[in-house]
Amino acid sequence: MRQMLYLLVGLLVVGAVVAGGLGLILPRRIVRPLLTVQEGAQQIGAGHLDHVIHVETGDEIQDLAESFNEMAASLESSQAELEQWARELEARVEERTGELAEVSAQMRQRATRLEASAEIARAIASVRDLDLLLPQVTHLISERFGWYHVGIFMVDEAWKYAVLRAANSAGGQRMLARGHSLRIGETGIVGHVTQ
C-alpha cells in the first residue's frame, strides 16, 4: 500500500509539474499571440490599415494574423484607389463646372447681342431718312456692343469706292468730314469686304 501511496504521490507531483509547465507554455504559445492578433485587429478596425500583426507561432493563429495583414493591405489599396477616383471625379466636376460657366457666359453674351441687334433693327425700321438713320445706328452699335469706333461705308454709284457715310467716334467724325473713301478690292479690310 505504501508503494501505491508513493506511486500516487509521484503521479501527483509529475501532474503538478506538467500542469505548471503547461501554465507557463499556454500563455506564451496561445494567449499572447491571440492578444496580439486581437490588438492588431483593433488597430486595423480603427483605420490604421498600415498596421502589421507580427505573430510567429507556425499554426492557425499565425495564419489568422497573416489573413488580417492581407485584408488590411487589400483595404489600404482599395482605399487609395477610391481616393484617386474621388480626386479624378472632383477634377472632372470642376472642369465641367468651368465649361458650363463658360457656355453660360457665352449664352448671356449672345442674348445681349441679339437684344442689341433687335434694337438696331427696330431703329432701322422706324427711321426712313438715311442721313438720320446711319449716325443713329453707329451710336447704337457702339453703345450696345461696347465698340470704340463704328463706321458705316456705302459703295459709290460707280462701284469703285467704299465711302464712309457715318461714324460714332471723334476720329471717325474727322474722317467723315474729309470725305474718307477706300478703293474697292484694294485698300484695307473695308476695301476687300466690299469687293
Can you put this structure into words, describing what you see?
It is a single chain. The chain has 195 residues and is mainly alpha-helical. It has a domain at 2-73. It has five helices and three strands, in the order H-H-H-E-E-H-E-H. Strands 1-2-3 form a three-stranded antiparallel beta sheet. The longest helix has 67 residues, at 60-126. It is rod-shaped and about 150 Å long. It starts with a helix and ends with a helix. The mean pLDDT is 85.
How large a portion of the residues is in β-strands, by DSSP E? 5-15%
Strand order of the largest sheet: 1-2-3
H/E element string? HHHEEHEH
| Class computed from helices, strands and strand pairing | mainly alpha
Oligomer: single chain
Mean pLDDT score, rounded? 85
Count the DSSP helices: 5
> What's the main sheet like?
3 strands, antiparallel
Principal-axes geometry comes out as rod-shaped
> Percentage of helical residues?
over 70%
Spatial gap, N to C terminus? 140 Å
Annotation, overall tally of beta strands: 3
Low-confidence stretches: none
* Radius of gyration, CA atoms, in whole angstroms: 47 Å
